[in-house]
Predict the 3D structure of the following.
Amino acid sequence: METETITLRNTVENIENAIGRRVIGSKRMVRFMMISLLTSNHILLEGVPGLAKTMLASEFSKHLGIDFNRIQFTPDMLPSDITGNMVFNMETKKMEFRQGPIFANVILADEINRTPPKVQSALLEAMEEKQVSVYGTTTRLPNPFFVIATQNPIEQEGTFPLAEALMDRFLFRYYLGYPSMDDELRILSSVYKNVKTEYEKLDGEKIIYFRNTIKNVYVSDDIIEYIVNIIRKTREYDMVYLGASPRTSVKYLNAARANALISGRNYVIPEDVIFMSRELLNHRLILRPEALLDNESDYQKIVYSIIDKIIATVEVPQ
């Protein structure tokens, strides 16, 4: 197991550094994307236009030696534009299923909240069950299957809020903010530079192998109890109307295992749990109205503050 741990850690570091040279300030985001991929989950990147969300997803896909499709969501789309449809074959005189763009290993769902809920719902079965059902015909999606979705803040014109059921399909919602002064200077300095990128591939066979390896990462009873206590505390906190579900506990545990393995360890420590608490919980908590009446008008800061307070109230295992 030690050899696999070192191999994965080195591979992830190389990918993080390579993407970081193309997308300034992306190293932490790439870590969360990798955790989502290796735990058979998906990730949602949220931020205003112009923050390189699409470029980041595209660069990430280039380091995976598997099929990639981009779906640009628009208000006039139909569910069949994503899943595919039944067509009549003139030669065989039979109806046949023609696959849509969802049939790829990595899907970039670009501006997913630009399309109505009816189309968003077409992703539910695909993301959870890894299959598509059209007119009674069920077809399995490729393995591995991974969705990188981007969305603009819901305050932006022409956007539709994602349903809670679809939001829960994403392991993380990662908020992208404006770059720091130093990063923005680096962005402008690199505009006309040809950055040579060597694409180290993490192909489908390796992804499936590391997914199975993650299951063997050791988690103590104290860490399991720590995760459960955090999830239960989200349901008891006075500013939270609806807390996280038991399914979140399972996702949390697997994500902590993945982060431990990527960090070069075959065991989970409390820092693995704390590291991803904001990104994993922010879209799974429904806040009470009074929580939003504070002087702070930024929803992201409000929900992050509440998550930090919840984490602070739970005793950390030694």
Q: What stands out?
A: The two ends are 25 Å apart (CA to CA).
